[in-house]
């Protein structure tokens, strides 16, 4: 089941998957509590949160109009390759398009995740760059 969640609900998975188990405080993002930011989670039948994402209002120079940025997308290691992230991202895109009337979504994609985003038709917006302590990334995005 996919539902809206609170910022603090995202922290354990962000820490585990995106920050190599760092303290939860290090998994917080400044924009987490901004009124226009939203968080989605995918829960299994037992009520365990298996996949998360955050979307924050933020424009990108490559696009015109209203934009959002995808942040902190993570799937529990035991739940990978089950299509959860795809379902969650598609739900976020639907909300952005149909409810918030957003024109595009963009993000910094980890190089290891590029094939996932390519399959969903996201386009490259940059060459590869390194985020210190996290690793190689490329900017990607999609107009709606």
Automatic annotation (TrEMBL):
Pfam families: Acetyltransf_7 (PF13508). Signal peptide: none annotated. CDD domains: NAT_SF. Keywords: Acyltransferase, Transferase. It is an enzyme of class 2 (transferase). Its EC number is 2.3.1.-. It comes from the Bacteria. Residues 1-144 form the N-acetyltransferase domain. GO terms for molecular function: acyltransferase activity, transferring groups other than amino-acyl groups. This is GNAT family N-acetyltransferase. It comes from Rhinopithecimicrobium faecis. The lineage of its organism: Bacteria, Pseudomonadati, Bacteroidota, Sphingobacteriia, Sphingobacteriales.
């Amino acid at each position: 089941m996919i539902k809206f969640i609170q910022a603090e609900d995202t922290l354990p998975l962000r820490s585990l998957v995106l920050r190599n188990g760092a303290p939860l405080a290090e998994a917080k993002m400044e924009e987490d509590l901004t009124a226009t930011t939203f968080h989605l989670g995918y829960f299994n039948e037992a009520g365990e949160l298996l996949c998360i994402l955050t979307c924050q209002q933020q424009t990108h120079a490559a696009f015109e109009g209203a934009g959002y940025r995808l942040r902190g997308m993570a799937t529990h290691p035991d739940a990978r390759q089950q299509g959860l992230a795809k379902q969650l991202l598609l739900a976020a895109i639907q909300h952005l398009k149909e409810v918030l009337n957003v024109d595009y979504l963009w993000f910094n994609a980890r190089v290891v995740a590029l094939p996932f985003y390519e399959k969903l038709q996201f386009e490259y917006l940059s060459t590869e760059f390194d985020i210190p302590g996290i690793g190689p990334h490329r900017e990607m995005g999609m107009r709606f």
